[in-house]
């Protein structure tokens, strides 16, 4: 029997290229090869299971979620357990209907998809149906793959569930259409999906209405859309609203659109300076518009060439296309960069590039994307996503298992295809386009971890080549599988009028695959990724394709936690040192688990590897570790610079990685290019220009610290250690006396240090007097060239701080309270340790922290570290350290890189960036759509 779904079918003991032999031409169902599973053995029974209690604690210490006696694979982490139980288990908590088992959760989804597949005629025989069920179960339980969140939310719960995470909605230039869009977006948010729209079809504010007067313009309507999203995000069934708003560069209101979010950001600053709550959900940001969407300007090659040539750019009326305003293209480009420098928006989408890779240009052009910019297709369409965990496709030797990966692509793509026909869609047009074009979004996660474990720097030609080859293999195999499905089920309905452009795009992909350099890529992978595109083209020419699109790179926020991924999507690792909250209080410090694997791959003996990991654990940086060769340092570079190190991945390295993967994706890549806080407007211009030159479809940048939000919990006192301590009994008085503060005066003769500073051109001097033990006890502030009022205020402020120090107020309390306060003067300082200050107060306390707090924290770590245990026969694992810490320099460095990230809407913990969105490492919530 022909095995059309096999990644590695065998004939007479020899491998045969899948799809080369037609076989069973008259059959409508597919044959499914068993690759991971054995006939008659339930994949769930091959795992060890245990019962756990899931619990998520908010920043206030109260339980946000709790469920006991949950059946979970023993290999799953506690974080994966918490995320799955809190996000994906259905049924009212505390009732018999509530799900209690990961085994049953996976069965709910797989059973439903298998039933749908049988009803849809996707399987040639019952044995193929059972093989599909077993193979998919294996992939999901072993954390090798996961569907997007709406599948876990809704499949097997509702008769006709909404399964897609990504939607693109059109809008016409009429009030009815505009209001219909608002309703459609609201329903999508309710069911946990995200949406994007291009508003360029709406007349500009300078254009006339038929009944007299002028149009409101798209920016005005954006206020209404934003308000709806803001209301729904806090009351949705599953998670926050996520949306993308796009405007073409030739729209009459493009300048208003570019400036709109930056203008609202300045209003928020004014409110913060007036004393309103600066947190992400506080009064300041809740009072301004456009905080619930990502904004992008869509530009053509014509526009970008005008920027390069310093040419003119013409905006045109929406209905008649008549010339309206003329701008200097560079001025508009500068406005885009300045706004992004100030608040992170707008991003850019490169229209010509997007449509040059469009498989269905015979139907209509691509105008928009989903909120995270990875799904780009026809208006009024939807895409269901799934991702593969790359770290689970390494063999024993640490090499990439090509055959296993190809088979996983085939099985998951078939599951996604089955979903299309049995899902519910919010509008009739989206339903029709979904059925007629059947776009899918298969992607991967854990690329950063895979590269490090393979001994390849993320920012290197070898690392990019490896990522390029894997992405190429995934997309080529997916299109080949789609062609095999088309042979049995027929191509998608819109294929006939799009055969020529689609085959043209496949040929472009194939050409790019043959151009992938081999440096850093194992021979089998390099050969197989080219062969996959040979199959994709040959099978497509013979049978067409079942799906118009097959791949994207999504942010993989929540599902990344479900798969226990160290890194999300295309991202590198954040840091080599990570921290895990303990239920009883405190934190567990862990060395990144990928580091020992990388050292082994690089050939270090176990004893040397242990020394390196121990040095990393002690110093919070791998720089300077014994035995580590200089040429290997780049392997361990991460997105954030460690507090005590100097290395991190340059922002151009992120763009180059996107460049390596983009030619092998149907859609685009969800990724924000994080830039350091001292990046200039010119840096952002360069990032946007290079992204266009390198063939990216979309790009967004984010300059760390540009938003003035402050985390809700930065001033919270450190969690006390909860270990039991034996202490002598103390007789408490019946009535406790009222505690009194006692002033500790400095000696008449004391040591001091004087520091000169400059903030935005305003110079001054800080003098700190110290006690005998070196701790600060008084502060003097002198501002140069300032009037008597400022001088008097500074003297009074310094006196207040001096008295606070002498009466025992911890410096840490004042640092937490007064760092990052904002008022003028602010700006560049010339101090490399504090390159930008938000105010004089901000600078003073960040300088005091750097100068006087590290020694205190070292003492804290020493106090809180557990006593060394007696030697045992089992040596300590080199991959982690059990030192407990209230606060460490590395943890603080991670926080500083995300100081303006929003707090989680579920538990209050500070989130971190995941692609173009945010994810919460405490409870698994995301702000995105996948």
Secondary structure: helix percent: 25-40%
Overall average pLDDT = 85
Number of helices: 26
| Rg calculated over all Cα atoms | 29 Å
What sort of overall outline do the alpha carbons produce when their principal axes are compared? globular
Q: Could you list the spans in which at least 5 consecutive residues all have pLDDT below 50? A: 1-26, 234-238, 710-737, 855-884, 886-891
Outline the biggest β-sheet: 10 strands, mixed
Structural class: alpha/beta
Give the DSSP E fraction (strand runs of 2 or more residues).
15-25%
- Strand tally: 27
Q: Report the end-to-end length measured between terminal Cα atoms.
A: 38 Å
Give a summary of the structure in a few sentences.
One of its GO terms (molecular function) is cobalt ion binding. The chain is of the alpha/beta class and 930 residues long. The protein has 26 helices and 27 strands.
Question: How would you describe this structure in keywords?
Answer:
globular; three-stranded antiparallel beta sheet; disordered N terminus; 930 residues; 26 helices; Anaerobic Ribonucleotide-triphosphate Reductase Large Chain; RNR_lg_C; RNR_2_N; 27 strands; oxidoreductase; ten-stranded mixed beta sheet; cobalamin binding; EC 1.17.4.1; 15% strand; alpha/beta
Report on the architecture of this protein:
- The strands form nine sheets. Strands 5, 6, 7, 8, 9, 12, 15, 16, 19 and 20 form a ten-stranded mixed β-sheet that branches. This protein has a three-stranded antiparallel β-sheet with strand order 21-22-23.
- Strand 3 (about 50-55) and strand 4 (about 65-75) form a beta hairpin.
- It has 26 helices and 27 strands.
- Mean pLDDT is about 85; it is low at about 1-25, about 235-240, about 710-735, about 855-885 and about 885-890.
- Helix 16 (about 500-515) packs antiparallel against helix 17 (about 525-545) and helix 24 crosses helix 25.
- With about 950 residues, it is an alpha/beta fold.
- The longest helix has 29 residues, at about 460-490.
- Among the domains are: about 35-165 and about 380-560, no CATH class; about 175-210 and about 215-370, Anaerobic Ribonucleotide-triphosphate Reductase Large Chain, CATH 3.20.70; about 750-865, no CATH class.
- It comes from Myxococcus stipitatus (strain DSM 14675 / JCM 12634 / Mx s8).
